[in-house]
Specification:
This protein is α+β, with helices and mostly antiparallel strands. Helix content is 52%, strand content 20%. A hairpin with a 4-residue loop joins strand 4 and strand 5 (111-118). The site of adenosine-5'-diphosphate has 20 residues, from helix 8 and helix 9.
Amino acid sequence: MTAEPLLRMRLRVEQDIFVVRQLGREVARAVGLESQDQTRMATALSEVARVMVAGGRDTDVTFAIEENGVTSLRVSMGYPEPGRAGRLGQQVQHVGRLVDTMEVDDDGTGTIVRMSRRLPFGAPRLTPDRMDEIRAELAQHVPGTPLDELAVQNQQLIAALDEVRAQRDDLARLNAELEETNRGVMALYNQLSEELEETNRGVVALYAELDEKSAQLRAASEAKSRFLANVSHELRAPVTAIIGLGRLLTDSGSDELTSEQDRQVGLIRTSASDLLTLVNDLLDLAKAEAGRIEPNWTEVDLKAMFGQLRGTLRPLATRPEVEFAVEEPGLPTFRSDEVLLAQILRNLLTNAIKFTESGSVRLSVRTVGGDAEFVVADTGIGIPPELQERVFEEFYQVPGSKPVSGKGTGLGLPYARRLAGILGGALRVDSAPGAGSTFTLCLPITS
Ligand code: ADP
């Protein structure tokens, strides 16, 4: 901390109070304090001077510039009579509000009041030359009369009052603006709330409509399943009768038919048995869709089931160019519904045999994670990628895919996928036209 003195003076009589006030203002202005701070400093000095001079003692006043990280104007006022700090401190206490720091001290040789006010950041730098200049200016200072000082004080008072009024007007304007903004914000908030409410009402209505639509869809789907089940059930008896009657007609015990009649009855019998297959498939699918199939969970002996499939399907795989292989299951037993599982695998294997001209048709099972994967792989005609999901739709058959043997209804895969779902699993296909298809039935292993 350094303190560079600017000016010293001595106060003796009341007249000097005006002088120190004027000088205080001059010094404050010269070192760069703003107008209001000049007035504050001058007022603080005259107040302290008034109290000290009233005590009837000569008072030494020193103005200095202090560097302490920041630059401040510091004024010390003291007289060589110790032991007065307490009372003096009380008398000048109110002055502290006009300056940044003020202390009243008793250093053993005298009583001293120190005050300081920080210079603003933008104030011109106080170089040694500038300090000399200020000292010279102050030396030239001619003290005015008390009347002059009174006039200056009045002007300052008027200016301060003006400023207060301007600040009050500013405050009123700011308040009005704030109120306006608040009103705007409230209006915006209300508008947003209304919009939100409107949107919510829309969403609620949409959901209600969706609920209604899905209820309608459910009802339509149930009606379809019911219709299919009823119709196919009703059809089964007459179709079976037609087949039986056809058989009777061609029986050796019946009257001899002409060869043409024999051919026509044969046609009737094949058509009727195709119709019966379709009716049976429809009935199965309708049952599965209506949720009327309840799995019968048992511990399935896969080895036995695979053996049975091998035995029943080998007669269908008549082409010598096709190797029909049912691999030994790596998984000996598996908890599932034996009939439904066998039905799915039979469907897949029948399809594979139907659509494979040469190469192989292979059934295997493996465990992947917590699942059993039953894989039916063939090297047949394959299914184009864009149709691989469509083959699971009812009655869908890949256009131009003529089975190598047998016929189809287009209901086998949708039924197999339904059953897979009922067993808690899924059925998917990977296929490439010309290379073959792999159907994978994935079922969770439950203990
Ligand atoms: P379909 O009674 O006609 O076999 P599916 O529902 O079982 O009825 O199969 C639907 C269609 O999917 C078949 O008509 C066929 O076009 C195709 N498809 C099914 N399995 C195979 C396969 N292994 N290889 C090639 N195409 C297949």
